[in-house]
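Progress report, Aim 2. The chain analyzed during this reporting quarter is listed below.
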Amino acid sequence: MMNFEMRPGPAKGLVEDAIADAEGRGLIGHVRAGDPAAWGAHADAARDWMGWLRAPEAMRPHIADIDSLVAACHQEGIRHALVLGMGGSSLSPEVTRRTFGHGDGIELRVLDSTDPVAVARITEGVDPAKCSAIVSSKSGTTAEPLAFAAHVGLFIKDALGEAWRDRFVAITDPGTPLAIRAADEGWRMVAENMPDVGGRFSALTLFGLIPMALAGVPVTDVLDRAAAAREGSDGPRLGVALAALARSGRDKLTIVADPGIGSFGLWAEQLVAESLGKDGEGVIPIAGEPLGDPDEYGFDRVILHLRLTGEHDDDVALIGASGIPVFVLDLREPLDVGALYMTLEIAIATAGAELGINPFDQPDVQAAKDAANTALASEDGIPKDDREGPEAIARAIGMLEKGDYLALLAFTTPTPGGERHLNAIRAAVRASTKSATTAGWGPRFLHSTGQLHKGGPGSGVFVQFLGPGGPDLPIPGQDHTFGDLLRAQAIGDAQALVERGRRVVRIDLGDDPEAALALAARVAAATVAP
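Predicted structure tokens for the chain:
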């Protein structure tokens, strides 16, 4: 079983008092039981979203169908499963892909970017006769996975003709347009998920379990460990502690994940940001930030160490010794992700209850989508006159004040080199200002931290990087391309941020995005905060 350890340091009294108070009010028991009353004024809204707590039992009847799907794929020689989704539909499969690989012979690939190069890569080296596509959308109307499905559909249809239907699986809520379409067209499986589970809480439902099973992960074991974690008190105690610390000014939850479980930060980032970033409040998740010296971390930090190998033990111990609260979730083996998913879901739902926030809605996401649709329909195209050169990163750093964070938003092709340059910017900013930093590739982050950016505290400074991407790709059945969609999403995001009074700097990466990001990193390293 996964172990939980609290090292709150100087905040020990604050944390212990908060937990004792929550226990005295019965909050921990109410949350574990899924009692909507735990969320106070939001009880009526919460009542419709309690399915995630029942998932370890509710998913058992689906295991036979999942096993049949996996067996059929093996019998037919399927070598690749292409997961097409966004946000909650893609992030837990991405954790599965990076954590477990493809020991049973079926390799997961996850597409959650409208960048034309990223879209093209999803089928590189794939035999269309030996691949399956999993189209995942809770609403069944999400624009990106439907566009991905059209692209991949042509790839498979060209090889298999009408037999393409046997290669497609839909995961969606009951009765959605996607469910109806998949049934009408005769797709291999229409997996209708529990409707009372929000996307970011869906890792232990069909959205997460079907990709897990295809990757060879024993889903029954995962559900068993999730059920055991639900019966413990670790999740509620962690949630109460995080809420108490956030109220005291420590609202930057820094996720340090060991090798082997490193991708879990992507999923946890969405859970925290979308659940708690609203009503002008929130906890800001800091995922993927390079580790630094203890004196580089500000007063606003809390460390959540997802421990598997112990590789980060010394660094975390040093940071904790400087007075920063540390919480450790210690996994014995990768299969403990079942317990980790459930523990963090309970923790963040509990933190919402303590902070008076409804953790189950996302009221500020639609604005960016609407603005993107407007930009996409505009005959004038995407305006460029507010873009600056990479040197403008210095101006963004100069905007940072005590308690702020810097968010790097990259609307360009994700590459390892680009990731290194973004991390270099993050390390330089923290060393100079002690400010926390986040980084995300667009449009993935729109379905992850986008809610926090618009609805959370006004403590973010947002740097939007815009690159040309590679050769464009048409979207079958549409009159715009993937490149058009990506650019529209970038302008829509910027407009939504500005409308909410956020501080935004837009940087044009020109024809060589990696070189421009490298220049921005050099400028950041040379910039000393005032």
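The two ends are 48 Å apart (CA to CA). The first strand starts at residue 3 and ends at 7. These observations will guide the mutagenesis work planned for the next reporting period.
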